[in-house]
Amino acid sequence: MKLARIGIQGDEMPAIALPDGTVRSLASVVDDISGAALSPANINALQRLDVASLPIISPPYRYGPCVGAVSQLICVGLNYADHAAEAGLDLPEEPILFMKSPSAICGPNDDIIIPRNADKVDWEVELGIVIGSRCSYVDEQEARKHVAGYCIVNDISEREFQLEGTGQWVKGKSADTFGPIGPWMVTRDELPNDDGLDIWLNVNNEEMQRSNTNQMIFGVAQLVSYISGYMTLMPGDIISTGTPYGVGLGLTPQRYLQVGDRMKLGIDGLGVQTQTAIAWRNQ
């Protein structure tokens, strides 16, 4: 299934995107695509629905973040060997973790706001793991049982905030709109081969990133198991699994997003995101 959230910011309704291109409302079935609704039992119940009886949502409409009320957005750094090389850093011996503020989350096609005093805003297409059931100290062999599904994440980063001065990753990753997720959360049963997905990103129609999730240093099961040994993972938490080669930081000369730049990014089976960079303005 492809589960989505449709509507204006802050007032999205749960929905299901169907193979024929229609989107139908799940508002009569679940309150939201979040938390307990992502449990294995509830996912199974959604799969048994007579979807033809659900109301069609007529376009145009906005895709919101595909998961609501995310409590933890946990990110993995340097998880592709080619990206570590372009950053001039050694391969990690264990996953590098950092947090991204949930307030950074936005819809997959929402504008990306270049923050005030920011000059080095960068792109990072990533596979997102959506947790479906509480897990702590889970064995690697059992880890996928706690995964509800997958989504695209664009881990937007401001490199000066992240790496210069005091060099704190979280402040370079957490500005408003720095976490587009969606357009859908694709349930685990529909995407059994999570370690063989093509992943790509273009800027202004120029290909910047192209790889495959089989190039990740630490795979899905390893990451869920490892992270659950340091924090309890809850339904609706998202793990962003790292980005491949081709970020602006690694180019010669370096290249960063400018107002009006347009990103398009995708992962096999998970859809496509499109975002335009706009200037920060005082609200």
Q: CA-to-CA gap between the ends?
A: 37 Å
Taking strands numbered 1, 2, ... along the chain, how are they ordered across the largest sheet? 3-2-1-13-10-9-16-4-5
CATH classification, class level:
Alpha Beta
CATH evolutionary superfamily: Fumarylacetoacetase-like, C-terminal domain
Provide the CATH architecture: Alpha-Beta Complex
Tell me about the biggest sheet?
9 strands, mixed
Strand content: 25-35%
Number of helices: 5
Poorly predicted segments: none
Number of domains: 1
Q: Number of DSSP strands?
A: 18
What is the mean predicted local confidence, pLDDT? 96
Structural Rg: 18 Å
Which H/E pattern describes the elements? Answer: EEEHEHEEEEEEEHHEEEEHEEE
Would you kindly provide a brief summary of this structure?
This protein has 283 residues and is mostly beta strands. The protein has helices at residues 40-47, 81-86, 159-163, 169-173, 220-228; strands at residues 2-6, 13-17, 23-25, 73-77, 96-100, 105-106, 112-114, 121-122, 125-131, 147-154, 157-158, 179-180, 185-187, 198-203, 206-212, 238-240, 262-267, 271-279. It contains five helices and 18 strands.
Structure characterization notes:
The structure is a single chain. This protein is mainly beta. Helices cover 12% and strands 29% of the residues. The chain has a single domain (65-279), classed as Alpha-Beta Complex (Fumarylacetoacetate hydrolase, domain 2), CATH 3.90.850.10. It has 5 helices and 18 strands. The N and C termini lie far apart (37 Å).
